[in-house]
Amino acid sequence: MIRRVQIPPFEALESLLPRRAGSDSATRAAVAGILEDVALRGDQAVREYTARFDAVDLAPGEWELPPARWQGALGRVDAELRTALARAVDRVREYHLHQREEGFRLTSDDGSMVGMKVTPLDRVGLYVPGGKASYPSSVVMNAVPAVVAGVPEIVAVVPPQGVTDVVLAACALSGVTRIFRIGGAQAVAAMAFGTATVPRVDKIVGPGNRWVAEAKRQVVGQVGIDMIAGPTEVLIIADGTASPARIAADLIAQAEHDEDATSWCVTTDARVADAIPAALERALTAAPRAAIARTALERNGLVILVPSMREAIEVANRRAPEHLEILADGAERIATGIRHAGAIFLGDHTPEPVGDYLAGPSHVLPTGGTARYASPLGVYDFVKRTSIIRYSPERLAADAGAIIALAEAEGLYGHAEAVRARSGGGD
Fold first, then answer.
1. CATH 3.40.50.1980 fits 25-99+120-225, yes or no
2. Around Cβ 386, how many Cβ atoms within 10 Å?
């Protein structure tokens, strides 16, 4: 069921690494048409696409959910679930408070100053998907860092066919300010361009299907986005102390998301590698989403046997996984060698789901190998930084010659003259 390879040689890994090519040409063209239409016709276009793709015809006046309805969801969900959501919000807020930037000012003796001002975005759009599961945790992990950053307005879009009370409760607890019943590429377009009903936002965050992902890709520049998220993934580093049953449970936990999820285990122990297939079969017999998990494991599952932990670390760095578990002695020491991962989970008592729900860091992580250069979603994604500069007469006089020389070297004589006019005694 799950493939097995042996490393080295590392060339055997190359064909298995993600090579993201983007969406297909048909999807790109279709999404481009939707975006252009919504930009031109606004609400009417959004309504027509919603009727066509979601089989729901709602007048624009029906899109926004009254606050009483979604705030009231807190009383409709099970008390234990409400408590769990509140705990998640508190943990995520507490963690992200440490990411806030205050800016700085560096002042010289002559009164000159350079600095950086940090300002939150005015309005953020949060895409809340429907699809194969309900994801209140995604609401928490996207909205709370924005609130901590100081964003005053968070506009969520939810499936027009309906949304669960637990998602609405998560919106209420996380700081969402408005909710609209629209989805798909047309919802991304509405938030990016603004319509008579849907306010224009500064940044769009949140997961979605390939149409949503492509729409986010195409509106970059009109608005900011968090990232283009691909299928979820986990890589587990295991030594001989790891339990094959627990490895199997963790591989399935990721594989059950959808058929394109990736679950890898890299182990230094042949006995562990030998035991994983049978452990997976046993676990799948009791898994409610076994069909999805089995398909994902057959397509994208992998057991990699390596001779030492050095090679295991190298495999992890080449894969740059979204989630990296280390089920081995000396997990923290091993983690020092990891350069590329969205989140690292240390030790047997830290399965990946603790990060999905309650640990604190946002679970919005780079996928598809982009952890080579990208970071988890955080407070820093919801602010912008502005440089501040103030020159004193003395500083300008001291720097004028260098500025003029550089400007004239670039052929920008007006730049030079703007400085010369001040440093040469002009009016």
1. yes
2. 10
